[in-house]
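Cross-posting from the modeling subforum.

Setting up a comparison between two proteins and wanted a second pair of eyes on the formatting. Protein 1 (sequence, then C-alpha cells):
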Amino acid sequence: MKNKLTLFNYIQFVGILFLFYCFTGLISCKTEQKNYDTLTCNIKTENDNLNVKVRSVIKLETSDSSLIGDITKIIFYKNRFFILDRMISKSLFVFDINGKFIAKTRRGRGPGECVNPKDFMIDPVNLTIQLWDQSNYNMMELDSNLTHVRTKHFEPVGLMNAEYINRDTMLVFAHVQVSDKTKNNNNLIYFNYSLYTNGFNKAINRLLPTSKELIRVVLESPICKTRRVIFVAPFDNNIYGIEKTKEKILYQLDFGTFGVNQADIAKGVNYIFKSSRNGSKITSIDNLHENDNYLAFSFFYKNRIGFFIHSKITNENYCSEKFFSKKILPICTLKGIFCEDNFIAVSEPEEVKNFKFADTKFNTQIRNIKEQDNPFIILFSLKEQQ
C-alpha cells in the first residue's frame, strides 16, 4: 500500500509539474509574440505639440554632368550628400553640404565604371562606399570623392537593396524562389530577403516568405542602418530587425481602416494600388530611417509619397499630410535622419518655387529656380513640447 501511494503521489507531482510548465510556457510565448511596439499611424493626425524649423534649403548644382533624374537614396556621410539615381541617370553622385557638385560614377563596363547600380552602403570596416552593379554582379569600392579603389566580382545574385548586418553578414532584399524540400511535388517557396555571408558565397537564411504575385512588387529603399538594421516587406505592416539569423518584429504599424489586410492581398496587387490611388488604403511602406529619438518611413497615398515620423521621446506620431496642408513644408519626400532631430527631405523645383518659407532668407535664395533644375534638399528639425 505504501508503494502504491508513493507511485500515485509521484504521478500527481509529474502531472502538476507538466501543467505548470505548460502554463508558464504559454505565458512566455505570449510575451515573446508581443515583444514589439504598436504605432498608431493616423493619416489625419492633428498633433499640435510640434515646432518644425527649416534649417537649410540646398540647391543641388545643376549642369550636364550633375543632372539627376530621380533620387532613390541619400546618405549623408563625411559632410557630403551621396545620392543614388538608379532609375534614370543610373549613377551615384556626391555633393558637398552646400550643394556643390563634386563627382559622379561613370557609365560603362570598363575599370571603375558601372552600368546598372542598384544600391550603395558604407563599408563598416574600411569606411568606404560600396556600390552594387547588377549588370555584372560587381561590388565597387569607392572613396568619398567616388574615386575607384577596387572592384570585386561575385557569383550571380539578384540584389535590389542591401545592408551590412556586421562585417561578415549582409541582408539582401531580392525576391528568390527555393524548392520546398519538405514535399515531393517540388513546390517553390518565395522569399523577400536573404542573409548572406559577406562574399555572397553562402545564403545563411531566407526571410519573410511571400507569394508569387507579390514578388513583382519592388520597393525603393526598404532597408536602413543607423543604430541598427531595420527593414520592411511589400504590403506588410511590420518593421523588422534581425535577431541572430532570423527576422524579429520591432514595430507593428496600425493604419486602422487604411491598412492593407489579407483580404486586400487576396484581391491582388492591382486592387491594392487602385485602393491607394483613390485614398482608401495606405501602401508601399518604404524609405526607413531611425536614430535614438525618431523612427520615420514613407508611404504611398492618393498618388503621392508621404511620410510618418514617430517620436521615441514623446511617443507621438506625425504625418506629412499635416506638414503640407498647414504649409509648414513644401511637398517633399523624406530621405534621412542625421544628428538628434534633423531630417533630410527632397523637393522638386516647382514645389519649392511656389512655397513661402517662414524664414524669408530662403525665399530670397530660390528666386531664380528653373523647372529643369536638380531637386532641392531641405534640412529641417523637430522641436517637441515634452
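Protein 2 (same layout):
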Amino acid sequence: MANIIVVDDDINVLKQVIFILDSLGNQIESLAEPKFLFQMLEETPADLILMDINMPDIDGIGLLKQLKDHPVFHSIPVIMLTADDDPNTLGNCFELGAIDFINKPIHEVILRARTQAVIKHLQLESQLQQAVKMQAVGTLAGGIGHEFNNLLSVIMGCTDMARREVPSDSFAKTQLDNVMTASYRVKDLVKQILAFSRQGNQIKISLNFCSVVKESLKLIHSSIPSSVEVRENIDSTCGNVLVDPTEIQQIVMNLSSNAVWAMREKGIIEINLSQVHLTAGEASTLGLAEDSYIKLSLADNGRGMDNETKTRIFDPYYTEKEVGKGTGMGLSIIYAIMESYKGTITVESEFDKGTTFHLYFPITDEPAVAKSEEVEKIPNPTNRKLF
C-alpha cells in the first residue's frame, strides 16, 4: 500500500483519480488548493504525488520546482497530470524532476498501469537500498565480532586464571567475578552480531515446518503473561523447509516478545501458518521468485507503528524500547536469517491498529529428518562429549 497525494483544482478529476487508485488498496489524500501542499506533507507523509500542471495561483511546474528544491520533500516522486501536449512543457517537467506524466482526460487503464509501475519501482528501490545497507553493516559487524571474540578470549582466560590465585572471600575475587559476568554478556552480544552478519556457524536441515513452529509455540506459552491470548491456525501439511531449528525458535520468540511489549502485556497474538503460491507479480514485489512458499504470519492488536518507524525497524540497533529493555538487534537478525533462507519478511502496521509480520520460507523437496537425526547433525566444534 502506498500513500498518494493528488493535487488538482478540478474536483471531478480528484474524485476520478481517488476512485481508481483507492480500489488498488492505496491511501489517497486529495488537495484542490496547491498552496497547502507543503502543510499537508508535514502532516501526511507521501510515497507519490500526482500533480496537475495548470492550476490557479501557482502552476504545477512552479510547485514542482518548489518541491524539488525542498530539503525534506525533494525525493518524493511526482507524476504530472496534463492536457498540454507541448513537448517543451513536458520536457521542462522532466528536467525539474518529474518521473512521468498522464494525459487528460485520464484513462483508467493508463492511470492504474503508470501509478503501479512507479510504486513497484519504489518498492524495488527500497529493497535494494535495504539490502546494500544490511550487507555493508553486516560486513562491518562480522569483522568487529571476530575481533571482539579474539580479545574476549584473552580477557576471559586471564581473568579465570587470576580468580584461581586469589582467596575466595577476597575483594579481588569479587571484582574478577564481575569481570567474568560482564564478559559472558559481551559474548552473547558477539553471538548476536555474528548471527546478524551470517558469519557464525549455521546448520540447515530439512524439517517439517509445522513441527518446528509448534515446538516454538510451546516456549511462547510458557514465557508470556497469562493476560496475553495466543490464537493458532497451523496447517500441518504446509511442507518442509531447509532451516536451522534454533533460528526458527529465535524468530518466533523474538516476534512474540515484541508483540507482548507492543500490547503492554495484554492482548491477542494470532499465529497463522500455511502454504501459499506467489504469482509473478506478487513474488516480484517481495523480491522472490514465482513459486510456492510457506507463509508464517504473526499479528498483534497492540500499539502499531507509524510510517517512519516501519521504514527503520529492520535497521541494526534501532529500538523503541527503553534503555536496558532491548538491543535493537532482534528484527535485523530475523531479516538476515530470512535472507540466508532465500525468503523474506514484511510488515503491515498502522498506529493504534496493531502489527502483522509475514515471513515467506522456500519449500524444499528434501525429506524431513527425524528428531533423533537432528541431534546427530549438530556438530561439536570442540570435539568434546556433550552431556
